[in-house]
Amino acid sequence: MFLNCGDRLHISNINSTTDKQRQVASSRIYTARYAGANYVVLLYGYWQNLVQQVCRLGTLALYL
Fold first, then answer.
1. What is the DSSP string of 22-54?
2. How many domains in the chain?
3. pLDDT confidence of 3, banded at 50, 70, 90?
């Protein structure tokens, strides 16, 4: 994702330390994405629950 054409040319002479740094960076990006997705799912679940509560209250109000 962060590779541009200049990086592709220099891949051949990358040593092990920068490779490890790259692995750490990519794993951090993956963790951030995963946490973000979890947060979105959590928010969606909360919103769905809220909608269900409102619908229940609405139907309850209709019967009163």
1. HHHHHHHHHHHHHHHHHHHHHHHHHHHHHHHHH
2. 1
3. very low
